[in-house]
Structure formats: C-alpha cells, structure tokens
Backbone:
C-alpha cells in the first residue's frame, strides 16, 4: 500500500512522457486522482486506535551502508499524505485546464514532485527521509525556474536567479541534515550494526552532547523549509517567480514537511536537546508569527500576502509542536492539514484574479464580487478559514495549539494570541481588497468558469467538511502524537524534567566524590 | 652453477601484457596504409581484452614480480575505471580534429600507453614501480594535451602540464629518496617495517619524505594549493583528452595515494592525517570558489575537479576500509558523471561556434533534450542531489569520515557542496531557463567565422551515436546506480577489503 501510493505518481509521470502532448495533462490528472484514491483507501483502512506503524514496508536497500527502504503510515503522516494527494489533484487539474509550455516535461516534473513529497512523509528510515527531502527540491527548481516569471521589470530577480536562491537556502539546511543524519546513526550504533531506521535509532538513543549539535543541523533544515523568521530570505523571490499551479502545491505541502520533520525526527531522536532548546525555537516561532503577520499587512502583491501569512501560520504550528504537550502537537498536526487546505485554494484564487485583472497588485484590484458572487463566496470561506473563524477546523487547531502553549509557557502563549488577531486583519484585507472596494476603471469581472470551479469547489468542500468534523483527524492522530510527545516529557512540565535530570547528574557527581 | 628460473605469474601480469601488445599493434597500424582507419577499433579491442583479463583476476589477490606489484581488487577496480574512461575517450575522439592532426595511430597508442601507466600505478607497491608507472602515465598525457596542433591553447596546455607535472614528479622523487634513505627499502611494506625497526617514528627525515611525497601526489590529483595548472590544462587540451585526464588520472593517482599512505606510512598516521585533512579542506574551498563565475565549461569542470579531489582526499585521510570503499565508489560515480558532461561538451563544441563556452548550451533543453538531459543529470549528480550516484557517493564519503572521527571535514564537504550548487545549477539554468527570445538573438553571433582557427561547425555532431550514445549511457548509469546502488557498493567493498581486510 505504502509503495503503491509512493510510486503511482512517478509511474504515471514516466508513461506521460511517451503520450501525445495534448493528452498528457489529463493523463497526469488521472495519475493524481489514482494516487488520491489510494490515499483515501489508506485512510479508510487505518486502525485509528493504534499508535503503531501501519502499511509498513521494510526492505534492505543499500545494505552496506545500513540504509533501508522502509515506509509506513501512522497518525503523524496519514493526513499529510491525504493532503498531498488532494492538493496535487487540484494543482495538476488546474494546470491541465490551461495551455502549458513543454507540457510533457511540466507534468512529469509535477508528478516527480508528488512522489518525492509523499516519500518524505512515508519514509521511516532517516536517510530515506533526507533523500526524499532533498529530492523534493529538484522538480520544483525546474518548475519555478523554467515555467516561472521573470520579475526584473519590477526590480525583482529573474526566475532562474530566484530559484537558485531558493535551492541554495534550502539545501544549506538539508546538506547539514545529511551529515547530521549519518552522525546520528554512527554515534548511536557505536561500532555495532549500522542502521538508519528511525524506530531503531529511538531505542539506541544519543548522548546529550551529540544531541545538542545534531539538533541544530536538523532544525536548520526544517526551519528554512517552512520558512521561519530570519531564514525566509528565499521565500518572497521564489513565490513571485513560481508558476501558480506549482506554487499552490508547494506552499500547501512542502512547508509542512519542515514541521512534520520536527515531529517525526527531532522530538523522538533528540529529546534532551528538544527540551533544552524549547524556548529558543519558541522564540523563533513567535518571531515568525509577528513578522509574517506584519509583512502580510503591508505587502501589496497578493502572492506575498499569502506567502507571509504562511510564515505566520507555520510559526503557529511550530509553537504548537514546541509546547511539547500532546494537545499542542495534536493541534499542530490538524493545523498543518488546515493550512494546506486554505493556502492552496488561495493561490488558485490568486491565479484566477490574475487572469481577470492582469495584475497581482492588490491596489489595482477591487470590486470583483459584483459580477462574480460564486467566486467571492468561495474566497470568503477560504478567508474565514484562514483567520480561524470559530466553527472552522482552523479554529479548533489554533485552540489546541494555544491550549498546549498556555499550559507549557504562558508568556509565549500571550504573544501567540496576538497572531490570531492579526490573521483576521490580513485575511480580511486580502478578501476586501480584491472582492469589495471600488472597482478600478477598465477592470472586467468574470464569474468563475465551470472548469475552475471543478478544481476550487472540492477544495473548499474539504475545508467545510473538516470544519464540521475535525475529529476525523484528531482521533486518528492522537495516539501517535501522545506517544511522540511522551518522549520529551509529555504531560509534565518539561523544564521540571530537565531539572530532574540535572539533579540526577548532581547526585552522580556527589556520589563520585 | 645452477640457475633457478624465477617463477613468473603470467596470469597476473597478463593485463599489462595485453596493453603493451595493443599499444605496439596500434602504433604499427599507423604505418600500414590499409590499417590506418582501424586504430580506434584496435584500441577498443585492446582495452576490452585488458578489462576481460582483469575481471578474470577478480577476487584473487596476488603479489607479482617479487613484490613490486600487487594485483588485488583495489587495483582491478581502479584499472577498470581507467579503462572505461579510455573507451569513452576513444568514442569521443572519433572525428575529433586532434586525432587527425596528430595521426590516429599515434594518438591512440599514446592513450593506451597512459592506460598502461595507470594500470601499473594502481598495482604499485614499490617506490620504483610507483615512479615508473607515474611517468608512464604522465608522459603520453603531456603529448596528448598538445595534439591539437593548430590551436595555440592546446600547445600551451601541453607545455604547462609538462612543466608543472615534472615539478610534481621531481618533488615526489625527492620525497621518495628521503624515505629510502631513512628506511633502506623501496618496498611499501619494507618502508613500514623500516620505520618501526629503526625507531624513526616522527623523525624529520621521514616527515620531510612524507611531506614531499604528498605534495608530489597533490600535483597529480590537482589538490589545492597545487592545482593552478588544472583549469588551464583542462581548457587547452582536446576535450576527449580532458575527460580522460579528469577521471582516469585522478583514479590512478588516488589508488597509489591510498596504498602509499595507508600501507607504507600507516604507522605515521598521526603526522600526516591532519595535514592531508587540511589539504582536503583547502581544496574543497578553493575549487568551489574558483568555479564560480567560470564561463568556459572545461574550466568549470577543472575547478570542480579540484573541489571533488578535496572530497575524495577525505577518504584517504581516514585510512580505513570504509574510506577505501567510499573512494572507489566515488571514483566510479565520478567517472559516469564526468563522462556524461564531457560527451555533451564535445558535441556542443562541434555543433556551435562557441567552443566550450556556456553560451553553447543555452536553450538546449527545448532544442536538443537528448543532449540536455545527460548534462543536466551530470550537473545534478556532481552537486550531490538525490536519485543520482553523486548523492550515494557523498553519503558513502560522509559515513566514512564521521566513522573516522573527521566530522568537521564532513561538514566541510556539505559546505563545499552548497557553494558548488551556484555553478552547477548555472549550467542547468542555461539549458532550461533562458527565455526563447534571448536565445534566438544569441544563437548565431556576429563573430561566426571571424576567427580562421574556429573549429568547423558540424550541426549533426550531437546526433551521432558516437557522442549521444556515451552521453546517454553515462547519464543512465548515473541515475541507475543512484537508485540501485547495491552492485556498485559491492564492487567498492571488495576493493576496500583488499587493502584492509
């Protein structure tokens, strides 16, 4: 099952290379739909009470180097896989309704990207995770660079320069992560049998000293990917350059891989360091919330408003994870799915706005709702979900996150709350600026076409249905999350634990004397 | 007086015999008019026979000629890499101007001579064979670099290589003299024994010998700060020869680097390990920074070779079985990655008037996908991106380094790789990401035909199997062994075990 989900997109992509150019878009859509079908089947067959790995595959891959082809699904990645499959159907179908240059290569890369992304969610071997994490970047490098937009006229970068910046930023993190992953395995093996299996590495454990530096190598990779404050330099240029169908899936899913990496790798493998650096990461997360929100207030390019709002939302998710409590992480997992579900439609809407107005500048838009009530209504639902309106699943997610944060670090929670208030402002600003206000002269408003509605309506329906029943996700993630968080102290206040450990060290030292 | 006939293991030296015979036949073929066009074919036959004889000896280590040579899996694997590269070089040399100008027979005979040197160098376990093999390898290369007789750059390249190479050899020889003087033995094992017996641990005599030998080898493997010749020579030499030098010379020199330092000087580990680690770090930094902003693809490959040599030197530093395996794996991967790139460069050199300038590959993705993909894969693999052998090679190297307590050098490799993205991806971007308009304007520049020396344009070059075939084959191997690395890992582990097992 896991293997089928992982390789289905790639298989369709390869076959697509040999089809006539006109058909390849639909073929790719079919591939994405088949993958979605497999992902839904995985959710239906998932045993929700268990925290164990399901649909597990474990074969030796490079036995000499201790690397296994090991995949599996549990509460942490189940819905992220489903999210990936859903958004890719949307992104590919949206592209298929439009003419693409060099369509064969375009769809091939889109599907390679899906396989790589699914791989990083499914991987249960540390090295396989790193491999897919790096691999994700390659198709997007080509998609953004070759099908993207040059922004030199607006004082920005060319598409290839912008993507180069993106890839250098993100690979700085992930190459260090490669070294760190290898170091983890070798230190844990301590001369014995070398393995990269995440489960086995958890058992073996690392010394406190090694955890400290390895933690930062991993954290750097994940924080760049999100992107977090100070490491987000690649984001504005890349977002402005990217072609919108690719950007919708990129922004909807890839940022989550960073947050997911913390839950999958960092918390279980480096618990001591996680507790030790909890506040540093929380500070970065809060800075991301504040900075992302403020930037989202002031940007005029609609892509960047959505981009910076993602920085803020990912800050929220990180804060939830680093509350190091079960409810915080539950909320974070839920919020990852929620955010993916709102940000991808946002970019689809941005693409529709661009087609109607010929601009991405919010100051030159307005009044579109007049002639396009359905589009406006869909956008309104997305916007309200973005600002976490009570009744939306985003509200539930943020509530859980804040709940966890309040119990763990109350001061941080107060700052984080301001992020909730600010999200209302930027979400409504985006909605009003485009849909309401006075319609500029010469701007034609058009209703959403049936074909685009076919893409957008199902995504919005996902948001609505999740709002009605967020328990769908929570009850399946809770057991795994509880198990993960238990590694870093779970219920009790983590600093008490660390103090406890330090006290033990003291006792040991005293005993020696 | 009785005379004992020495035992000669003809099976063991059969690869060397095959190469020597092949060399003579190819050289003579140039004399007989009807055979003149057969030189490439005869060269391929000689290479194929040698490869077959080497594979026959696989997993059967033996010491030859009273300890002067040792034919083990390390030597065989390195020789096979050199032969593979030479075979690619023969294909790339078809229709090459340099081949015609220098005479096909002579050109190919020199190539075989160099391969002979490499095969011997990979087996050398004695200072004398070491030095003789190194010269057998180098002297034909000096000449081959200058075979493009009408191009000043080619002659300059040959002369420069000759002078710098001689300095390297002289330094190495001087270092060997110190080691021999100190230990009284030319045999690698004898040197190790001599150091232990005479209590020469850390003696200045030995240390000077080690330092000079390391410098000499650093010249050959183009390790910074002894790399200055590399970009110039790479750029000036005929491109097929550049590809051969870039891969095969490095492989053979690293093989003897391993054997010499790990076997003969293994006891002096503490004195040379930090020095070589520092050299590796400098090389990674210098090579990667130097490659930034290079417009000539051959210069770019030269600088990238300096950086890659730094990565590989890391595996010599740790002096372990894992390090040796990692090196052999990396060299094999490096061969595929480089050959794919050079085949495309040769094709574009003949197709366009830009020579090896990066402008020559602009818009290749839309225009000639069958050439663009191999170069793309090669660049991504050199940058160490996943699903290529480059990634697995880096993984192997870093694993060996971390295991050998050289984590800082592993981090250096990661940092170097980041810098390298800037220039490898520049090539990829040129192929796939130039707007159509700009390319159309630059496709036929005003300078066309301005220089009487400009190579004739052969717009079909990239469609010929002799260029597209090797490019696609090497790129396919790069991806295949990136996804199914186990066969290559087994190959490398055999080599590693033969030195440390």
Residues:
């Amino acid at each position: 099952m896991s293997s089928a989900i992982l390789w289905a997109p790639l298989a369709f992509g390869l076959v697509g290379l040999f089809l006539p150019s006109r058909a390849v878009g639909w073929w790719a859509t079919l591939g994405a739909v088949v993958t979605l079908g497999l992902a839904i089947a995985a959710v239906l067959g998932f045993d929700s009470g268990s925290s164990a790995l399901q649909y597990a595959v474990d074969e030796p891959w490079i036995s000499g180097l201790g690397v296994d082809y090991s995949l599996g699904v549990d509460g942490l990645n189940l819905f992220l896989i489903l999210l990936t499959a859903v958004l890719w159907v949307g992104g590919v179908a949206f592209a298929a309704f439009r003419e693409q240059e060099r369509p064969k290569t375009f769809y091939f890369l889109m599907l390679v990207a899906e396989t790589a992304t699914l791989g990083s969610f499914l991987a249960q071997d540390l090295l396989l995770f790193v491999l897919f994490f790096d691999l994700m970047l390659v198709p997007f490098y080509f998609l953004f660079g070759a099908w993207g937009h040059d922004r030199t006229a607006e004082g920005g970068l060319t598409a290839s320069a912008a993507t180069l910046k993106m890839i250098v930023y993100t690979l700085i993190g992930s190459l260090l992560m490669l070294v760190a992953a290898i170091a983890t395995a070798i230190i844990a093996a301590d001369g014995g049998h070398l393995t990269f299996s995440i489960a086995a590495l958890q058992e073996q454990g690392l010394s406190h000293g090694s955890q400290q530096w390895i933690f930062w190598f991993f954290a750097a990779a994940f924080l760049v990917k999100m992107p977090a404050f100070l490491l987000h330099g690649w984001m504005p240029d890349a977002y402005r350059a990217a072609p919108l169908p690719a950007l919708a899936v990129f922004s909807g899913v890839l940022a989550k891989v960073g947050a997911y990496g913390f839950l999958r790798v960092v918390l279980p493998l480096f618990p001591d360091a996680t507790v030790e650096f909890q506040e540093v990461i929380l500070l970065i997360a809060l800075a991301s919330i504040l900075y992302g929100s403020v930037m989202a207030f002031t940007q005029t390019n609609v892509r960047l408003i959505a981009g910076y709002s993602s920085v803020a939302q990912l800050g929220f998710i990180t804060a939830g994870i680093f509350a190091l409590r079960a409810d915080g992480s539950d909320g974070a997992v839920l919020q990852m799915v929620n955010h993916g579900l709102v940000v991808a439609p946002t970019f689809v809407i941005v693409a529709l706005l661009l087609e109607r107005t010929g601009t991405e500048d919010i100051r030159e838009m307005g009044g579109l709702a007049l002639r396009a009530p359905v589009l406006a209504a869909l956008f309104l639902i997305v916007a309200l979900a973005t600002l976490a309106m009570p009744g939306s699943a985003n509200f539930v997610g943020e509530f859980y996150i804040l709940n966890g944060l309040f119990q763990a670090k109350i001061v941080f929670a107060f700052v984080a709350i301001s992020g909730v208030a600010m999200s209302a402002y930027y979400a409504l600003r985006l909605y009003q600026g485009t849909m309401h206000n006075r319609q500029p002269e010469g701007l034609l408003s058009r209703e959403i076409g049936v074909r685009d509605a076919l893409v957008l309506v199902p995504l919005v329906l996902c948001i609505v249905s999740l709002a009605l029943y967020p328990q769908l996700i929570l009850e399946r993630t809770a057991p795994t999350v509880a198990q993960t968080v238990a590694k870093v102290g779970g219920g009790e206040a983590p600093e008490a634990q660390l103090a406890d450990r330090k006290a033990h060290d003291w006792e040991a030292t005293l005993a020696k004397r | 007086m009785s005379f004992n006939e020495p035992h000669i293991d003809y099976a063991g030296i059969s690869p060397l015999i095959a190469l020597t015979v092949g060399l003579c036949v190819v050289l003579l073929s140039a004399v007989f008019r009807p055979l003149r066009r057969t030189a490439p074919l005869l060269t391929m036959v000689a290479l194929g026979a040698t490869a077959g004889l080497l594979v026959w000896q696989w997993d059967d280590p033996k010491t030859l000629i009273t300890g002067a040579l040792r034919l083990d899996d390390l030597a065989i694997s390195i020789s096979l890499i050199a032969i593979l590269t030479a075979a690619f070089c023969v294909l790339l040399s078809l229709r090459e101007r340099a081949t015609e100008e220098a005479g096909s027979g002579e050109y190919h005979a020199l190539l075989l001579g160099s391969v002979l040197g490499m095969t011997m160098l990979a087996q050398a376990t004695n200072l004398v064979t070491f030095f003789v093999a190194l010269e057998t390898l180098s002297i034909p290369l000096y000449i081959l670099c200058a075979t493009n007789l009408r191009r000043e750059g080619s002659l300059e390249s040959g002369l420069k290589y000759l002078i710098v190479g001689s300095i390297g050899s002289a330094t190495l020889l001087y270092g060997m003299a110190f080691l021999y003087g100190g230990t009284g033995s030319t045999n690698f094992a004898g040197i190790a024994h001599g150091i232990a017996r005479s209590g020469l641990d850390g003696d200045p005599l030995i240390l000077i010998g080690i330092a000079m030998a390391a410098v000499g080898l650093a010249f050959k493997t183009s390790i910074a700060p002894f790399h200055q010749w590399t970009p110039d020579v790479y750029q000036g030499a005929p491109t097929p020869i550049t590809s051969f030098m870039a891969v095969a010379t490095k492989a053979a020199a690293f093989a003897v680097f391993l054997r010499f330092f790990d076997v003969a000087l293994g006891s002096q580990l503490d004195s040379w390990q930090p020095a070589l680690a520092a050299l590796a770090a400098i090389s990674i930094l210098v090579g990667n920074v130097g490659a930034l902003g290079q417009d000539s693809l051959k210069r770019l490959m030269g600088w990238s070779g300096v950086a890659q040599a730094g990565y590989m030197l890391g595996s010599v530093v740790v002096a372990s079985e894992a390090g040796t395996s990692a090196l052999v794996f990396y060299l094999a991967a490096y061969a595929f990655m480089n050959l794919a790139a050079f085949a495309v460069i040769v094709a574009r050199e003949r197709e366009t008037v830009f020579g090896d300038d990066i402008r020559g590959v602009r818009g290749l993705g839309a225009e000639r996908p069958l050439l663009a993909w191999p170069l793309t894969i090669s660049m991504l693999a050199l940058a160490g991106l996943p699903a290529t052998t480059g990634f697995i090679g880096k993984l192997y190297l870093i694993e060996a380094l971390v295991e050998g307590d050289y984590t800082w050098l592993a981090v250096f490799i990661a940092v170097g790789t980041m810098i390298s993205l800037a220039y490898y991806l520049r090539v990829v971007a040129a192929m796939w990401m130039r707007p159509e308009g700009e390319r159309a304007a630059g496709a036929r520049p005003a300078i066309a035909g301005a220089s009487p020396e400009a190579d004739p344009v052969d717009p079909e070059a990239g469609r010929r199997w002799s260029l597209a075939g090797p490019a696609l084959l090497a790129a396919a191997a790069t991806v295949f062994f990136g996804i199914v690395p186990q066969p290559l890992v087994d190959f490398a582990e055999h080599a590693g075990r033969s030195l440390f097992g």
In short: The mean pLDDT of chain B is 89.
